[in-house]
Amino acid sequence: MTSSVVRIGVEGTGSYGAGLARALTTAGLTVIEVARQDRQARRRRGKSDPLDAHQAAVAVLAGTDTAIPKSGDGAVESMRILLAERRSAAKARAQVMNQIHALLITAPELVRQAFRALSGQRLVNTLAKTRPGTITSPDPAVVARQTLRRFAVRHLTMQAETDLIEQQLEMLVRQVNPTLLSLSGVGPVTAATLLVAAGDNPERLGTRASFAALAGVAPIPASSGQRTRHRLSRGGNRHANAALHRIMLLRMRHREPRRMAYFERRRSEQLTDRDIMRCLKRHVANEIYAALLNPATDNPVGRELRARRQAKGIPISVLAATLGVPYQRLRRLEIGTRADPELEARATAILEQISPPLAA
Asked: Are the C-beta atoms of residues 173 and 180 closer than 8 Å to each other?
């Protein structure tokens, strides 16, 4: 009976069907992700387990509404778990900060005066160091100080958890795909988000268009009459879409020459800023797709530059000041966590003009 099974359709391989999909894959069977039947068809045909099983089998045989599921058995699955934990910790941290501000608004005047000039992390650190005592008191000022301190300690705890999670994510990303971290605007959290979207088996995405559709940056026709245009996609993995948007915002903030030139050219073609961002996000998605399929085990970006600078005895802070860039930007280039061809060319030109120190 088992020998006659060619493919098996499973619905919800990323949630309730994950365990079944992994077990079938381990047994050597081909698993196909089947999309859930639309509501109109369910209302027309009814809903039951036999009907759903028959519909899944028909979809697999016809090759409609099917996809290759994520394997979920490697380091990328660990990243997915860590990202879910990080989102929870970040949400709790933001809620605690909102509660601190809300309490300070309604607290007694003496409490408000003590912390009125503080904000952000400085406020949290100061509240955590206060000693309001543990004695039960009916005085609202005492209770407010005690509550504020507990809120601050909770905020610091969530921050420590977030920092630890991000360290784990960076370690995993460097093991799986260090090439992503060398791209401009891509940090550990963003890289992990994109890796999770693609899964442990990114080769299941056969084309760049497949990854663009998965990330919600594939253009959707919205033409009417003589006007031809496309609009933003509202589907796909929204976490991956947000990651691509963050990459674009960082690149625009740093005013990368290629991006700014493209922006101005498309503006001259009467495209709106929203449409230009959509086009740029698609270009970034293509860049990310290439990195997903070609992970590098070693990233030598900036290594030669660092050796040349050290050979000439120039501190990195001095070279950064000469280039007029932040110290951290040059450091990221030298250790290979960011690709910055324009900065590398400028730094190389300056180092070539400096003679090495004479030996004693």
From this structure: yes
The DSSP secondary-structure symbol of 4 reads: G
Are the C-beta atoms of 184 and 338 separated by less than 8 Å? Answer: yes
Residues in the chain: 360
Other Cβ atoms closer than 10 A to 160 = 11
**Token pair of 242 as six digits:** 């947000």
Q: Collapsing DSSP states into helix, strand and coil, what is residue 120? A: helix
**Mind spelling out the 3-state secondary structure of 66-108?**
EECCCCCCCHHHHHHHHHHHHHHHHHHHHHHHHHHHHHHHHCC
Per-residue tokens: 141 = 């000022």
> How does strand 230-231 pair with strand 220-221?
antiparallel
Mean pLDDT by 10 residues, the chain (360 residues): 69 81 81 77 75 76 74 86 95 95 91 89 92 82 91 95 94 88 87 91 86 87 80 84 91 80 87 85 90 69 78 85 80 69 83 65
Tell me the pairing of strands 220-221 and 7-11. unpaired
Main-chain dihedrals φ then ψ at residue 33, nearest 5 degrees: -75, 125
Distances (CA, A) of 354 to 282, 331, 345: 42, 20, 15
Helix (H, G, I), strand (E, B) or coil at 234: coil
Q: Measured between alpha carbons, how far is 31 from 33 in angstroms, rounded to an integer?
A: 7
